[in-house]
Each structure stands twice: as structure tokens, then as C-alpha cells.
Amino acid sequence: MPDPDRIVRMNTVLSRTGLSRSTIYRKIAEGTFPAQLKISVNGAGWRESDINRWVADPVRWRPESNTDEAR
Prior knowledge:
Layout: E1 7-8, H1 10-17, H2 21-30, E2 37-38, E3 44-47, H3 48-56, H4 64-70
Antiparallel strand pairs: 1-3, 2-3
């Protein structure tokens, strides 16, 4: 059985991607970076698998739901 997907917070995303906070939010708005998940009233994070996919190929990254709709 595969390991469950972890939720990572902003500091982890910043260190993994090398992007600034403002660049991350701009890319989310453009649809070229994974969107955050709301995990509590004041907390948000990202699926680690989404960040890993983005790091592996940032130029071609697209949300998984959009690629499914295109098929």
C-alpha cells in the first residue's frame, strides 16, 4: 500500500522550490503552480506529491484535474 500524501506548509514549499512567497502566489493565480489546500480556519498547505510533480517539471506542470478534463 502506498504511503499517504503528506501536507507541507509554506516554509517547506519555499525551500523545495527556491521561489519567493509572492512568486508562488502569482503562479497559483496564473494556474502554473499547485493551489493550496485549506487545512484549518487559519492554516493551509500543499500536497507533497503536487510539489514534487512541480519540482520535477515546472514548465509543463498543470493541475491534474485539468489534464483529466482535456482527455
